[in-house]
Write a structure and sequence with these properties.
361 residues, mainly alpha, two-stranded antiparallel sheet, 12 helices, 64% helix
């Protein structure tokens, strides 16, 4: 590749030699988005060619750095076009300077850290320190009620005292507020090519639409009740799985994900082991409510039996099956990221973004 052409390609992207692959992709997405709005296909094609040149140059440089190949510095000056800086002399991979525990693409971290944190959560649960996590487990239960209400467009306030007031009338503020958050998440993920953030935004928006507009009021109220214990399963499982999800940079997720991993593992283990014992008859189904005691006819299990005709065996089977489904899902997520299959969606997006425009477009 000619030096002037490479220099022009860097200039087209507003970059200098020595930039990282992430900076290349970010600059390309920003400029490409502006050209999409202007409908200038010719300019987009030129930008794509510039991107491919720069990406190839950066990849070659990073491959050489990973192999710890030290470039020999020439003893005589080399003529270069004005405005183009020579590539830096790299003796090691620059990404190695980043803390490994904050990396989302470190195979050792993805393979070892989650099992270790889950084991730590289990030890804390069975120790006297587990008492201090009880309040959190209760709050996750209430968030289970609240998320089901929010997804169906209702106001709900999950209180850590074991009570979640839900307002039955539909609230446009709740529905469109959540939808706006998903749009923001999708756009941020799209700009930074965080494919899993985009998938999560679309999935949540679709679930919200179904629960709000496709379920009857009675069905919505059923999920408000069922998702108390249900939320202990799926919310804690999502907290564990989110350890692998690279959110847009503005979310500062690199360090926070460890807290969510520990708390999610603690809640999931507590709930799963408890309902496993209930399923096998070693423990009774929890009747009543935390606020009004075991005789409260408004407790979740009481309502499932009195209003929806559920039997004890059906309750045991439903929650045990939900726990097993979450456990299998977590196993699949762990295997996907352990085998690095999560790169497939990123590869597809990269290919589509570089695809040639259709004829006549």
């Amino acid at each position: 590749m000619d030096e002037p052409d490479l220099g022009a390609s860097y200039a087209a992207l507003g970059l200098q030699a020595g930039c990282s692959a992430e900076e290349v992709e970010r600059a390309f997405m920003k400029k490409n988005f502006a050209l999409i709005k202007s409908a200038d296909e010719s300019a987009r094609e030129k930008l794509r060619r510039a991107h491919d040149r720069v990406a190839a140059d950066v990849k070659a440089r990073e491959n050489q750095a990973r192999a710890n190949v030290v470039r020999e510095v020439p003893t005589t000056p080399v003529a270069r076009p004005k405005g183009i800086l020579p590539p830096p002399v790299v003796t090691h991979d620059p990404s190695a300077d980043d803390p490994a525990l904050l990396s989302f693409d470190n195979p050792l971290v993805n393979a070892v850290v989650p099992p270790l944190v889950v084991a730590l959560a289990w030890v804390v649960n069975i120790s006297p320190l587990g008492f201090f996590l009880t309040g959190f487990h209760v709050w996750v239960h209430e968030f289970g009620h609240a998320t089901a209400a929010w997804m169906s467009g209702r106001k709900a306030l999950p209180l850590p005292i074991g009570w979640t007031p839900i307002e039955p009338p539909y609230s446009p503020m709740v529905y469109f507020g959540i939808l706006l958050l998903m749009v923001i998440l999708f756009i941020a993920g799209w700009k930074e090519r965080k494919i899993w953030a985009m998938i999560a935004a679309v999935a949540i928006a679709a679930l919200q639409f179904v629960m709000t507009w496709r379920l009857t009021e009675s069905e919505q109220q059923f999920y408000w009740t069922f998702c108390g214990v249900g939320g202990e399963f799926y919310l804690s499982a999502l907290a564990i799985a989110s350890f692998y999800v690279q959110l847009p940079e503005k979310f500062r997720w690199g360090g926070c994900r460890y807290v969510f991993l520990f708390l999610g593992a603690s809640c999931f283990l507590y709930t799963y082991l408890r309902w496993r014992d209930i399923y096998h008859g070693l423990e009774d189904i929890p009747m009543g409510s935390m606020v009004n005691g075991e005789d409260d006819a408004g407790g979740d299990m009481n309502v499932l039996m009195s209003d929806y005709g559920w039997t004890h065996s059906r309750i045991r089977f439903a929650y045990h099956a939900l726990g097993n489904a979450c456990l299998v899902g977590l196993g699949v997520v762990y295997a996907v990221f352990l085998l690095r299959l999560n790169r497939i969606p990123d590869w597809i997006v990269a290919k589509l973004s570089r695809a040639e425009p259709a004829a006549g477009s």
